From TrEMBL:
<dbReference type="Pfam" id="PF00440">
    <property type="entry name" value="TetR_N"/>
</dbReference>
<dbReference type="GO" id="GO:0003677">
    <property type="term" value="F:DNA binding"/>
</dbReference>
<dbReference type="InterPro" id="IPR001647">
    <property type="entry name" value="HTH_TetR"/>
</dbReference>
<keyword id="KW-0238">DNA-binding</keyword>
<dbReference type="InterPro" id="IPR025996">
    <property type="entry name" value="MT1864/Rv1816-like_C"/>
</dbReference>
<dbReference type="Pfam" id="PF13305">
    <property type="entry name" value="TetR_C_33"/>
</dbReference>
<dbReference type="InterPro" id="IPR009057">
    <property type="entry name" value="Homeodomain-like_sf"/>
</dbReference>
<feature type="domain" description="HTH tetR-type">
    <location>
        <begin position="5"/>
        <end position="65"/>
    </location>
</feature>
<dbReference type="InterPro" id="IPR036271">
    <property type="entry name" value="Tet_transcr_reg_TetR-rel_C_sf"/>
</dbReference>
<feature type="DNA-binding region" description="H-T-H motif">
    <location>
        <begin position="28"/>
        <end position="47"/>
    </location>
</feature>
<dbReference type="InterPro" id="IPR023772">
    <property type="entry name" value="DNA-bd_HTH_TetR-type_CS"/>
</dbReference>
<keyword id="KW-0805">Transcription regulation</keyword>
<keyword id="KW-0804">Transcription</keyword>
<protein>
    <submittedName>
        <fullName>TetR/AcrR family transcriptional regulator</fullName>
    </submittedName>
</protein>
Amino acid sequence: MARAGLTADRVTEAAADLADVVGFDNVTLSALARGFGVADASLYSHVRNMRDLRTRVAVRAAAELGDRLAAATAGRAGKESLAGFANAWRDFARECPGRYQATQMAVDPEVVAASPGHQRIMAITYAHLSAYALTEPDLTDAIRLLRSTYQGFFAIEASSGFDHPRDLQASWEKILDALDSALTHWHVSS
């Protein structure tokens, strides 16, 4: 019998909230159980194990990020879409750091295939680059360039590693300009 109001969705939501406070890697079933005022064993009625809980948080976070990316790129193309996408992703990383970490978790391919959020992120990622008219393998290379640039920036920003008087937002905008230029003038593979 489930504890009053305790469901897999509530446990997942609480884990996502906790991840934003303590970091995705620091979420434990014990901490969640304490938050609910139940014994650790009570959570196993709702999640199989820690891997299951982490996967559920990753799927939830992907859906939330996908919604933000869709709103930020809708009706936009080229640099405007690129900036909308990048800014939405950066805002998500800053506002929801644990959830952002969850979106970086490697999940099983069958989970990705069944996850509307993961599928939406992939579709938006490819769609927002359509104005640059890249085809494979260049499209994959461009996505890897963007992802590593964004994730590197987010990681350094989160750790306060940009210890320089230069305005961080100005640097971010310069980076987006450079990425747009790189995509616009991409040397196509032969």
